[in-house]
Amino acid sequence: MEKLSMAATIFCAVALAALATAAGGEAAVVEHTFVVHEMNQTHLCNTTKIYVVNGQLPGPTIDVTDGDTVVVHVENRLPHGLTIHWHGVRQIRSCWSDGAGFVTECPIPPGGNHVYRFNVTGQVGTLWWHAHVTCLRATVAGAFVIRPKGGRYPFPTPTKDVPIIIGEWWELDLVELDRRMHDGNFDDNPLSATINGKLGDLSNCSGKPEESFVLDVVRGKTYLLRIVNTALFSEYYFKVAGHTLTVVGADGNYLTPYKTDMVTLAPGEAMDVLMVADAPPAHYHMVALANQPPEPDPQIPGFVSRGLVRYAGSDNSNNGLPVPTPLMPDQHNTMPSYYFHNNLTGLAHPDRHRVPMHVDERFFFTLGLGSICRNNSTSCKRRRSPETIVVATMNNVSFRHPTNTSLLERYYERRTSGLYTEDLPDHPPHPYNYTDRNLIPPGPLEEALEPTFKATKLRRFRYNTSVEIIFQSTALLQSDSNPMHLHGYDFFVLAMGLGNYNPKTDPKKFNYHNPQLRNTVQVPRTGWAAVRFVTDNPGMWYLHCHFEFHIIMGMATAFIVEDGPTPETSLPPPPPEFKKCGANGLTQP
């Protein structure tokens, strides 16, 4: 982690980590203070204003044990509002602390503060936290580590664990980036990838290489790499030259150990990966390479960062030999991602995490693009003309995000009239060949499917409903994959495939024995993924693609889960520290 200097007036309290541990190793209360502020950082010969927590990029790691209670005091010293989301934390009966802007709370105002309090139970592994308003999560983010009770893993205990935060370096101000995307401008790109905030030696300023992240290892020791993709725009391939990696967990759940030479992470995903330092003592490069589809724009530049694995006792000159660099796939080759994700399985446990075999409600969600006419016109030229704004959709509905209130607050107070409806379609309005590549470029086939509309459409579920969703990535105006993230839940990934989902033959491929349990599923490019879960956590839960441009464009919705029959299965009232929305769309003092 890269620590950055800052004026003493910003803060003097680094993360409190006040562990009030009871006798006998019982659950603890882990407290942190997050001061969110601006600072300048220089890369690629330019000084850029960035947004950080406690002067750190990436932000501080929250390190807890299964069963602990987490309390985070957030002080907002930015000139605009923000929230902090605890990505992947189940938030059982604590939806009020989920931190989804305008979904579970209004943003913390400039100069304001907020307390997040929640319990972490039944999850072990790597999650993460990030800002959930505008594009600030590009730099306001960090790892969230949950350790098993007693320190016992179902794999060899590592000597050390190391967060590996893959991100992007943006020279453009992130608030301005958000404004441009809301206006329909999606032409901006980051300048580089980062590993733990470092651009790496493949980037340079006037011929001087940028600093690289360095992992120091001892031969024969095992290291647990806690890899998180915090990027706004890209999936990433990750390799370490000369080393085999073993994936043992993802999204806070154990996986069947899977050996590979490359890990693939979509935005929002977190992987637990064992690396044994078993190579001859020397230096070895690690590489994070962005993966983009070749269509519709093959000219997107490659984003890459290169770090270093440095063995104890190795010569600083690497014995005069070139430092080995892993061979990476072509940046436009998306198939390695598909095979990687499809090869992962959950660590089967007979007493928990059983797949619901009965399904109460089924959904078929198409994920694609469309357009709306500018200036509320009822008709306009399509085919990406200046008269339209390109939006993202689920079943041809582009989600209209609230801008001055919280969906959860209004739902709880039963003041929802005019705010949202509960009629998100469970299938697209018109069946078509969803993965026809002729739909990618503007043309007559695409034009007939392009018109859509903005609306705040949700779905409501009774408590303990078994839900199955088929996510279908389409080729409509684009060919992106879609990392779909559901707040407040883990779901079973039963299967995924390429092309159009076939409801007659593809269910035969479903894995009911040991499917992955995830909070984010990478729906393949022009492919599909099937997930299933039970609505056992009441509240208002955001579902969205984790590509930032897709969120802003409207590939999102929210699920309402009603209370169960008992107080233990119901959403409690907001906690004392919860702050209601004010008239300006920010939390009240």
From TrEMBL:
Cofactor list: Cu cation
GO CC terms, sorted: apoplast
Keywords from the UniProt entry: Apoplast, Copper, Glycoprotein, Lignin degradation, Metal-binding, Oxidoreductase, Repeat, Secreted, Signal
PROSITE patterns: MULTICOPPER_OXIDASE1, MULTICOPPER_OXIDASE2
Co-factor: note: Binds 4 Cu cations per monomer.
EC number: 1.10.3.2
Main enzyme class: oxidoreductase
Catalytic function, reaction form: 4 hydroquinone + O2 = 4 benzosemiquinone + 2 H2O
Annotated localization: Secreted, Extracellular space, Apoplast
Residue ranges of every copy of the Plastocyanin-like domain listed in the record: 37-149, 161-289, 452-563
Keyword Electron transport in record: no
Signal peptide residue numbers: 1-27
Gene Ontology molecular functions: copper ion binding; hydroquinone:oxygen oxidoreductase activity
Region (Disordered): 564-589
Name listed for the protein in its UniProt record: Laccase
Organism from which the protein derives: Lolium multiflorum
